[in-house]
Request: fold
Amino acid sequence: MRKTLLAGGVAALALLAHAAPAAAQQRVFDVPAQPAASAISAFARQAGLQVVAPADGLEGVRTQALKGAMDARAALHKLIDGTGLEIVSDSAGVIVLRRVPAPAKDTVAAEPAALDTIIVTAQKREEAAQGVPISLSAFSGRAVETYRLESLRDISRLTPGLLVSSFSQSSPTIAIRGATNTFTQIGANKPVAVVIDDLFIPRNSAASFELYGLNSVQVLKGPQGTLFGRNVTGGAIVLDTGKPAYEDAARSVRIGGGDYGLKQVDGRVDIPVGQDVALRLSGSFKQHDGYGRDRLTGREEDDLDSRGVRAQARLRAADNVEVLLGADYGEDHNGGRTLSSKGAGSDGDRRTSELGYVQDFGRNQWGASARIYWTAPVGQVTSITGYRWSQSGEDYSGTGASYVFLTGTNTQSVNRDVDDVGLFSQEVRWASPKWSRGDVVAGVYLADENAKRQLRTRGLAAVTGVASSDVLTDQAVRTRSYAGFIDGTLHLPAALDLTLGARYTHDEKTASLVRTDFVRPATGSFTARDLKADWSEVTPRAVLSWTPRQDLKVYGSVTRGYTAGGFNTDAATLSALATPFNPETVTNYELGVKSQWLADTLRINASIFHMDYKDKQELFFNNLTRVLTITNAGQATVKGAELEVTWRPLPWLNLMGNYGLLDTVYDNFVIPGGAVNTGNPLGSSPRNKGALAADVRIPLNGKGYLTGALSWAYTDGYYTGATKDPNLHIDSYALTNLSVGYESQNGRWRLTAWVKNLGDVDYLLTPSTQGVLAEYLGEPQTMGVMLSAKF
Reply:
């Protein structure tokens, strides 16, 4: 299968390269003399491009007539000549215009007063985020650097509706609008997708890595059941590393240090090779001592040793064919989590553990991709061929205290969890030109995933430490996914657009499990090979949007998504393994508005939504069968609202605020022979979540700039699971980050001092009730300095 798809991708590349020269041509334009705003809109339709222009500041400005056959870029330059606009970005069919900045006396070049335009790929085209009728939060590369967003957890602090926490190093919790699960079984999928450079990361154990060198981060909220490669019910986090420019050499480096022995270096170099080849190499190294330690073993915990490298080659194979080749490698290690006992053995210090067990975490991962973009007369054809591989291993104690502190029949559960996952994927899609009546995106997606996992769980008897239980599960699941999708927009009268789309997905899974019970081999061991199940689903979407002017969009949408079914590969009995659980589905109803005001210096986006879950997948202990089970437990409803405001009142000041409200409930969830969870809120769904942030770059009378950033993020209390167990509740908390720095007049270097968790707040990541009450805290206050330079 993989060889066939790879051969097909190579054949497609050869065909595109052969066909490319014939596709190069000029466009025929007929744009009468008229106001600049309407002229730019008419040009975009005739050129088959998306042109993003400021909505204000062009009153009374008219363009000359544009008529005849000519190159699209040359025509645009001619059209905007004398309008006070210039091209600031031109990438893959999306052109961003801005007003020409006025010179300032105390700066080398004046900063634009308008807000940053962030280009996103939420609809499989490069588009300005404000023009997409989808609820999303987007961070530019500048924002990622300014606010030191170094992990998905940092991103979640400033994103309404997104919660990122951690059970252990290999098991992060990623929830969007309450959509998540806590399964670690290799035969289960997650309802939130993490995507880097168009490639899906198949396991959460490979998803929580250090972020560096990013062009943008996009958080898409609600089911992504039409356009994304892996159909998900909750949403997607899209990481874009950008691409090098053909004729611009650039080099940047950041070197930092701080308390807890922090050492940090990252950098990027762009190397143009002639006019048709550009290379990019970026790398990162980060190391710090432990935030906690095990007082019995003396080992550090929650330390970090991380390094990674990315390489890209951008080639202009022909006038209308571009190839982007990418590869990356990363590895990180630490001493596991600081799970601190609240009872037996506790020394009263929440930053020490009493596990007496040598914990360790290590991970290696790499990826490679080939992206081909062919701009043909009938639109853009894109081929994405990629492979991602990860291997992680973790030794950890699931119980919050060593067996030496336990009594009676209690045991200390210790685990070794190792997974090995490879995913090959191929996507081919066609995006039509931006016709006057609308546009269409259509394509096919294929994925072949091989996943293996070994989980060994031992129970160490109280006082003696003798293994009272010892089980090894050797799990393997192969998943093949096939999909076809189409999504089109029709321009209607009165500035209305109707978007209709659908995706057909077919998933096949083959699971095997060898369960070895070393203590009770006769009753606890079994083998199952090649268990098969498959599911098919059609997930549509419909969006009606109204754009009375370029900087205001109101939309209503109905979207559907599904998370594939699977096998409980941790099953303790053959029957629990052999019975697969079915997909869960979500239908989302949403109303939203995206708007910009005050000459594009104020952005206000808001949405309200209602999500209906069917056949929600849940993990629970079945009191009738006495087996830990994954099943389609019932139904749930999620309602909420989100507001995001960004304002640049002065060229040197950016303000941001957001708020998310969540109201979640299980409409029907009864555990056989056990608890009734009907009426309880969904896990990992804080009712209130919000953030305030500001950053400055103040000119100092020709002597450089004073820089700084301040953010405050609040997360309301929530339960980690479906039960309203007060011992599994995380109390509300607020975190504050601060940085202050100086930047040189030419912008070549910057020195910044920073503090994270300024108030040194003790906040929970995960509470534990396994054996004893215990808790795992988030990062303490940390501080340091960073020197950044550009060459």
